[in-house]
Amino acid sequence: EVVGILCLISVAASLDFKYHHAEELEAYLKGVHAAYPSLTHLHSIGRSVEGRNLWVLVLGRFPTHHKIGIPEFKYVANMHGDETVGREILLHLIDFLVTSYGRDPVITQLLNNTRIHIMPTMNPDGFEATKVPDCYYSRGRYNKNGEDLNRNFPDAFENNNASIQPETQAVMNWIKNETFVLSANLHGGALVASYTFDNGNSVTGSLNGYSRSPDDDVFIHLAKTYSLNHASMYKGTGCDNRQTFPEGITNGYSWYQLEGGMQDYNYIWGQCFEITLELSCCKYPPADQLEEFWNDNKVALIEYIKQVHLGVKGQVTDKNGNPIPNAIVEAKGRPHVCPYRTNEHGEYFLLLLPGTYVINATVPGFKSMLKTVEIHNSTGNFSALKQDFSFSEVSVRSRAPSCPTSPLYQELERASAAVKPTLHLLVLMTVLLVIFK
After folding, report:
1. CA-CA-CA-CA torsion for 189, 191, 193, 199, nearest 10 degrees?
2. Helix (H) or strand (E) segment spanning residue 227
3. Domain 22-309 adopts which CATH fold?
4. 278 noted as active-site residue
5. Residue 94: pLDDT band by 50, 70, 90 thresholds?
6. C-alpha dist (Å) from residue 258 to 157, 363, 364
7. DSSP code at position 200
8. Model confidence band, residue 13 (pLDDT cutoffs 50, 70, 90)
9. Which of the listed residues 106, 137, 144, 192 has the most CB atoms within 10 Å of its CB?
10. What is the pLDDT of residues 154-182, one digit of tens each?
11. Where are the domains of the chain?
12. Which is the catalytic residue, given 83, 88, 259, 278?
């Protein structure tokens, strides 16, 4: 028994810079969990088409469950099976976090105040299927059913009629079951931090070649946080002479339009701000370059996690102090197409840059409450500003309809295009009613 434990601890201690296939990846994650049982929680959120586990290692002072006031953060890599750098640097990030806890004051505070979920591979089948590593493209990009997982989520702009894959469904369920606030998904094939929206229409400004979300300023800040802390991404040189990205960031739609992407899904349906990190010009580089990739990304990976503590957070309660789930809490002037609601603990988290905001809390059927808040940069304190709301006249648990998965922005576009005809129609209906009465 002792020998077994020692073997596990040595697995956790010796992580080489090489590619780890499914069995080695699983052994490594199990080894880390065995060596750091109170700091980590290992679970599978589902299985791939070929039945491989979709492993997630959770790290934090309370790794097994959500704690009120502690935001949830996630990194997902290897969604395209042949884009491999993210898969390996997330293993090294795990190694760095567990070995620095208790030794490095910043990492210790980060893990005490944040619950960090790390999924090294969302497409294990695609990775295993990539027999001949290539810088540009291989069939391993897709899952076993030949589907591109980053075109497979419900889309807010058009019906993409995707047949939802097991890997995608597992991630959608995971997003639904956790209160994720901030996230990034790690890709390869370029060197840039790309942010929402990836798709768009006239409502979001796509006619001008840019698809703007209500939180565009926050997304630009998040993308820059990564690129400016990366060894070279901020230079914006791209991977060939044709492509340049000022400061190493881009709006997804400006770069190229895609539907059914994971980052837009997170933001609209998951209330989670996600950006896409393209980490290497070569999709599947030689293993001897992995150490350099880790060194290039290490600071950026940590600085990005800290941004989960931007803005404001709090709880909405009734007159008895009980949490009110599904209360709508948003900053004025930033309405989300799917309103942001409190979780089962009555909690909300809003990522906002420093400044003055009016926060509007609404319990359906009751009067809204407005509070003006002054937000400072709180990432160094590892806690967003706290602002609670108490509804003295409410003693009910508000049940709200969940957001429909139909293309929400499509409806908005129709509505804005149809304002004039609608008025005519209303006048006509009124006239007809008067006549028939």
Report:
1. -40
2. helix 216-229
3. Aminopeptidase (3.40.630)
4. yes
5. very high
6. 10, 35, 35
7. -
8. low
9. 192
10. 999 999 888 999 999 999 999 999 999 99
11. 22-309, 312-391, 409-436
12. 278
